[in-house]
Amino acid sequence: MAVLRPQDQLPGLNTATILLVGTEDALLQQLADSILKEDCASDLKVHLAQSLPLPSNVTRPRIDLIVFVVNLHSKYSLQNVEESLRHVDAAFFLGKVGFLATGAGRDSHCSVHRNTVLRLAQAYRSPLLFCDLEVDGFRVSMAQRLVRMLQVCAGHVPGVSALNLLSLMGTSENPSAEGL
């Protein structure tokens, strides 16, 4: 079982790489496209994976940020993220992992409660973001936010480290309805 470690690769010059992990291929691809459209001084790279571990026979750049995407309409999505977390080295949880819950805009159809995802994020001391990725405007805003997080995690923001990320984003104790 290959564990994903933050220092497996040397950092690329002015390159920032995000790994989006989730079961919703179409939504992840749309989010990836939105991220790549962002105006950024860094060379952005986006990798998509349905689950971890990643294949060991593939060469890939250093991963600066992992975002686990949980669809609140799918218990399988949550289970997949929980299984994938076992393949991430503990050092990644020093500010280089985040959770994104999507589908919260239609609460009545959710099969995964928001508090379940909130507890997961708290257990891993990682930020939790809420966004309905099916809505174009929300997806673009989330892409902008993820790019800012990625730049911090890649070390491209002077004076700010990935360890500061959680405190900079505020607490995820009481997620607001903003960005649903």
Write up this protein.
The structure is a single chain. This protein has 180 residues and is an alpha/beta fold. 32% of the residues lie in helices and 17% in strands. The protein has helices at residues 25-37, 75-85, 114-123, 136-153, 165-169; strands at residues 15-21, 43-49, 65-71, 97-102, 128-130. Helix 3 links the parallel strand 4 (97-102) and strand 5 (128-130).
Task: Report the order of strands and helices.
Answer: EHEEHEHEHH
Total beta-strand segments: 5
Structural class: alpha/beta
Strand content: 15-25%
Global Rg: 15 Å
N- to C-terminal separation?
Answer: 36 Å
| Count of helix runs | 5
Summarize the structure.
The chain is built from five helices and five strands, in the order E-H-E-E-H-E-H-E-H-H. The chain has 180 residues and is of the alpha/beta class.
Structural features:
180 residues, alpha/beta, 5-stranded parallel beta sheet, globular
